[in-house]
């Protein structure tokens, strides 16, 4: 089976919109595009290389695909030659509800993202790695299709913008498989699925009369 691995750069308040540049995605009046660039360091680069050091195919939403297709096919022989050649040579699975001109070699349209990705997961092949694609991520989380999350949390608060997790996310437990903190303060965590969410209780047993009254009030307030 193939795994779905989410790769996400997020702010402390969970925003992942337009990390790469001012013109990447100004949707909703977002004015902080390129917030990652001043903070990246050598450790960040090493962990990105590690994430892409395994066999993988890309799994992208429409907008991220358009950003990548306008950049990576033209980036070979430049400073990012290695990753450009890798991205250009592998399969790119693109979730799109609209007709999209798939100009990038190796691109495959997914018209029903949840069903098509569930089918892809049952096949033999490399991991399916996301980049950006915040709308697609909501579909993946809502349909319990994510096996691993690689989160790069940057020491910045952005206030608003597209976020990693939305209200439709299906509850799931993850465990920390590896972590690292970069010199510039990027917290890097690799989380893998760990079954269902477990709950516990720190309350007194039996509850005090004050606690019983509090619970009754909460139920009445809804």
UniProtKB/TrEMBL annotation:
Entry GO MF terms: 5-amino-6-(5-phosphoribosylamino)uracil reductase activity
Segments for region (Disordered): 200-222
Every Bacterial bifunctional deaminase-reductase C-terminal domain range: 2-187
Database matches in Pfam families: RibD_C
Name used for this protein in its record: Dihydrofolate reductase
InterPro entries: DHFR-like_dom_sf, RibDG_C, Riboflavin_Biosynth_HTPR
Basic and acidic residues bias (residue ranges): 212-222
Gene Ontology terms: biological process: riboflavin biosynthetic process
Source species: Marinobacter pelagius
């Amino acid at each position: 089976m193939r795994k779905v691995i989410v790769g996400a750069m997020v702010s402390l308040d969970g925003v992942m919109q337009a990390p790469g540049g001012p013109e990447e995605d100004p949707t909703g009046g977002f004015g902080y595009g390129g917030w990652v660039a001043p903070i990246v360091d050598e450790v960040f680069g090493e962990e990105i290389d590690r994430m892409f050091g395994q066999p993988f195919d890309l799994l992208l939403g429409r907008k991220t695909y358009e950003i990548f297709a306008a950049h990576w096919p033209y980036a070979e022989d430049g400073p990012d030659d290695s990753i450009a050649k890798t991205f250009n040579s592998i399969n790119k699975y693109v979730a799109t509800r609209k007709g999209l001109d798939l100009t990038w070699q190796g691109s495959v349209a997914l018209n029903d993202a949840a069903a098509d990705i569930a089918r892809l997961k049952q096949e033999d092949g490399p991991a399916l790695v996301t980049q950006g694609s915040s709308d697609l991520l909501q579909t993946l989380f809502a349909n319990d299709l994510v096996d691993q999350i690689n989160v790069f949390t940057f020491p910045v608060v952005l206030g608003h913008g597209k976020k990693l997790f939305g209200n439709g996310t299906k509850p799931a437990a993850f465990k920390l498989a590896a972590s690292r903190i970069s010199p510039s303060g990027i917290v890097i965590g690799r989380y893998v699925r760990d079954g269902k969410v477990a709950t516990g209780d720190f309350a007194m047993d039996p509850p005090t009369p004050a606690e019983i009254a509090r619970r009754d009030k909460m139920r009445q307030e809804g």
